[in-house]
């Protein structure tokens, strides 16, 4: 069996399409769980009497541990296969997601929020799994669509969690327990998803890695495996250029998820529900915008090759940086929402365009490449968190981020491919072999 050279969207009849749909569903639930706390922070702030510095610490904790886990999970996919890696992450991640509902102090809440960040590594497995299932002519679209639809879980969490809490209170749950009961929901969903992923997916079109290795079958995407994959990826300068660009697009996306609701409440005096809906609109752009970035990347590559993919990323990041500056200086809530949607469109498209490049960086070390670049997103988010803590002002932080994102777009221009790389791509499409 070979890689799929088209996306049969309404089919579950092949291993490739089962992996496609279950990866985005698993990622959606993980992203929902990852950011379920964010829209409830105005309530949680009052519950624990949190200071601005403590809220900044919580936002940093939410993304910090993800850096380490993303670096580890990529080589683990090469070694054990994405099926085992995803199932294990879902089960392990459900523990702190459920645990945060029982936090009794700032310290315990911070501890569980730190551990919840591990579920953000689900993104790397999602991108790995679709990369080994789809041929180069559609892999950019497959990667961007699964990541984008999964990312939408963050937007759904922004809008749904306040409504879920309000519904529970209407049903008689006390105000103090409303947010806690609401936070149990994503943890339970993760456990259910783990069972589905284990039952209905396989590692690659040919089967599962451990069975194929036992039969003596060579697996290109996991040829080196483990830390050899990481070391190979770390020696490629293009990996580090995309590490920076992904920090500037996905890092900003995570930062906005964490601060949007409370920013609208405190800066524009919106209600918790209205702020949640405004913040949700940013996350819901992922339903189509990230896939659009990958789709356009695939199309420009057909006529201009791999370097066109990098140039497209540069243009999208410029749009993101300028849009972010607009959002930072918006004077009213309507202007702020419009600006957020505009820069959000470019942000999500830039994320999709980045991972449309990932399968072509080094096919011998796909897990290492996906893991390092994915970790870059969280490094960007952590840096943004420390920037806000240092400046002490959200609006100034957004302005500074706009400038930094615009500058970082230059790293996309630095990503260049050799004549050999460019000649390989059409051959791989024709042969439908590993990308």
Give a quick precis of the structure.
It holds the Pfam family MFS_1. The chain is mainly alpha-helical. It is built from 18 helices and no strands.
Structure explained in plain terms:
- This protein has 435 residues and is mainly alpha-helical.
- It has a single domain, classed as MFS general substrate transporter like domains (Growth Hormone, Chain: A, Up-down Bundle).
- The chain contains 18 helices and no strands.
- It has helices at 15-34, 41-48, 52-80, 82-99, 106-116, 122-133, 136-170, 175-200, 209-214, 226-234, 237-268, 272-284, 289-304, 306-328, 333-357, 366-391, 394-414, 419-431.
- Helix 1 (15-34) runs antiparallel to helix 6 (122-133) and helix 6 (122-133) packs antiparallel against helix 16.
- The chain is globular.
- 58% of the residues are buried.
- The model is unreliable at 427-435 (pLDDT under 50).
List the helices and strands and how they pair.
Elements: H1 15-34, H2 41-48, H3 52-80, H4 82-99, H5 106-116, H6 122-133, H7 136-170, H8 175-200, H9 209-214, H10 226-234, H11 237-268, H12 272-284, H13 289-304, H14 306-328, H15 333-357, H16 366-391, H17 394-414, H18 419-431
């Amino acid at each position: 069996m070979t890689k799929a050279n088209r996306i049969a969207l309404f089919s579950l009849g092949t291993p490739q399409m089962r992996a496609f749909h279950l990866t985005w569903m698993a990622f959606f639930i993980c992203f929902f769980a990852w950011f379920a706390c964010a829209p409830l922070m105005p309530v949680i702030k009052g519950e624990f009497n949190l200071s601005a510095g403590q809220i900044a610490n919580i936002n940093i904790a939410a993304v910090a541990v993800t850096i380490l886990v993303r670096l580890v999970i990529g080589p683990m996919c090469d070694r054990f296969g994405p099926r085992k890696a995803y199932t294990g992450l879902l089960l392990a991640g459900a523990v702190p997601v459920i645990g945060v509902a029982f936090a009794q102090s700032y310290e315990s809440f911070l501890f569980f929020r730190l551990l919840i960040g591990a579920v953000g590594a689900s993104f790397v497995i999602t991108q790995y799994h679709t990369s080994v299932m789809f041929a180069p002519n559609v892999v950019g679209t497959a990667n961007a669509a699964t990541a984008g639809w999964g990312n939408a879980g963050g937007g759904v969490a922004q809008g749904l969690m306040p409504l879920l809490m309000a519904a529970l209170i209407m049903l008689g749950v006390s105000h103090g327990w409303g947010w806690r009961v609401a936070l149990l929901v994503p943890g339970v969903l993760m456990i259910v998803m783990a069972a589905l992923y284990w039952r209905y997916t396989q590692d690659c079109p040919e089967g599962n890695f451990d069975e194929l290795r036992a039969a003596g079958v060579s697996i290109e995407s996991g040829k080196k495996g483990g830390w050899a994959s990481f070391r190979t990826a770390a020696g490629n300068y293009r990996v580090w250029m995309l590490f920076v660009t992904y920090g500037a697009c996905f890092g900003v996306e995570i930062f906005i998820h964490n601060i949007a609701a409370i920013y609208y409440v405190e800066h524009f005096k919106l209600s918790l529900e209205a702020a949640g809906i405004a913040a949700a609109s940013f996350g819901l752009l992922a339903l189509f915008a990230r896939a659009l970035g990958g789709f356009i990347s695939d199309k420009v590559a057909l006529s201009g090759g791999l370097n066109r993919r990098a140039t497209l990323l540069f243009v999208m990041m410029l749009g993101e940086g300028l849009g972010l500056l607009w959002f930072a200086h918006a004077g009213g809530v309507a202007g702020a929402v419009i600006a957020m949607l505009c820069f959000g469109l470019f942000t999500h498209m830039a994320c999709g365009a980045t991972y449309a490049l990932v399968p072509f960086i080094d096919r011998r070390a796909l897990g290492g490449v996906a893991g390092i670049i994915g970790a870059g997103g969280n490094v960007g988010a952590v840096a943004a968190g420390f920037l806000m803590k240092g400046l002490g002002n959200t609006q100034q932080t957004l302005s500074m981020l706009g400038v930094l994102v615009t500058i970082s777009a230059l790293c996309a221009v630095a990503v260049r491919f050799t004549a050999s790389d460019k000649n390989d791509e059409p051959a791989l499409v024709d042969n439908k072999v590993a990308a």
